Amino acid sequence: MPIRSTLPLGHVAGIRLGAHWSAGVTVGLFTWVLASYLHGTAGTGIIWAAAVLGALTLIACLLAHELAHSIVATRHGVRVERIVLWLLGGASELADEPRDARTDLRVALAGPATSLRLGIVAYGAAALAAVFSPGGPVTATLLWLATVNVVLAVFNMLPGAPLDGGRVVRALLWRRSGDRLRAETTAARIGRFVGMILAGLGVAEILAVGDFGGLWLMLLGWFLYTAANSELMLAGLRHRLGDTTIGEIMTPHPISIPADRTVEQLLGSDVVYTHHRVFPVVDADGRPRAVLAWADLLRPRTAVHPGLRVSELARPLQPAAIAGLDAPLRDVIARIVLRPDLDAIAVVHPSGRLAGVVTATDLALACDRSALGLPAHPTQTSS
Fold first, then answer.
1. In what order do the strands lie in the sheet with 251-252?
2. Which has fewest Cβ within 10 Å: 48, 134, 158, 223?
3. CA-to-CA distance for 12 and 110, rounded, in angstroms?
4. What is the spatial distance between Cα 41 and Cα 244, in angstroms, rounded to a whole number?
5. Sign of torsion, CA 172 174 177 181?
């Protein structure tokens, strides 16, 4: 599920970076843990300075892990929405699903391989630093970074979705059987089991040892179980949707708003008499560039002034929110979550011109009908 409310951090290799507020909690936690680890190696001021630098370096390592996933994905034709840093590390949000098992496997392995390489480099740097300062904070920080990166690589290879190891399991089963949905289901079930095991180990650590560090294992276990359960439900939904395309459930020839239209012109047009709440915003060539909801006019992000244009208030359409007519509905649903009355998917012709629009209500209706064994769209005829 995409993480909203993020702070933009720029671009690397053409990939957008962002940080959720919870990433600050992670930096603080890493700083505290590393400062405790460095206790006695130097003065208090130096220890805290090393801890802050070490924590920020580890965040950079987490970012490198996700960048590896994303760069490999883009090289294989998979569009990447962005990378987001948050409480439990980082997440690469893909706008497309891998087209084959080999691509899926390569994307999954890229992250852990990068973390392992970073760990080896950090161990080498620690060995070099030990020559000059055997018990100093620099050597200890490098050893800590090396250990955490190796642990990160090993942990991510646990064989259950949504961990990288679960993606590897999915890719291998997909390649062996040719059945992607069955592979997804198996990986998700293993992920739920792994989550329960981790949560159980956290509880055991608290009860047997009295170490409240077990709360972190419980949190990880809960997250893995919840995420794996969501993937399992999504796999079932994808199976029910079958080969339904986004073009089959879209509203064709939707009302669109030219980007150069002013808000005053919009409020004086026939658009206000429609029952629609979300509108695609198109450029002069009819290509969708943004989306505008009535709510955007009520909470403007730009100061209201005479001649204020729709393009100044509209929210840019992300790559995941633009789909071709023949795009499988199961893949579109897997990559985007729409907020009712705020978001929409723009469906485009091969030329890029707007062909239709799909709202959160359309997606919910398609899912409900599929769950009942009905065609995803009421006008669709069964064979």
1. 251-252, 354-359, 344-348, 322-324
2. 134
3. 17
4. 62
5. positive
- Burial bucket for residue 263 (CB in 10 Å: 0-12, 13-18, 19+): buried
Q: Which two tokens stand for residue 341?
A: 């009355």
Closest alpha carbon to 99 in 82, 68, 74, 76: 76
pTM of the shown model:
0.75
* Token couple for 232: 């399992």
Catalytic positions, please? 66
Q: Per residue in 186-219, pLDDT tens?
A: 999 999 999 999 999 988 888 887 766 678 788 8
User: CB count, 10 Å around CB of 47?
Assistant: 21
Residues sharing a CB contact under 8 Å with residue 16, sequence separation 6 or more, in sequence order? 8, 10, 81, 82, 83
Kindly tell me if the per-residue pLDDT of 135 is higher than 70.
yes
Token reading at 186: 């198996």
CA geometry: angle at 37 spanning 32 and 39, to 5°? 95
Q: What is the pLDDT of residues 140-165, one digit of tens each?
A: 999 999 999 999 999 999 998 889 99
Q: Which domains does the chain have, with CATH numbers?
A: 6-241 (no CATH), 246-371 (3.10.580.10)
Beta strands in 159-256, from DSSP E residues, in sequence order: 251-252
Structure tokens belonging to residue 146:
């090396």
3-state secondary structure of 228: helix
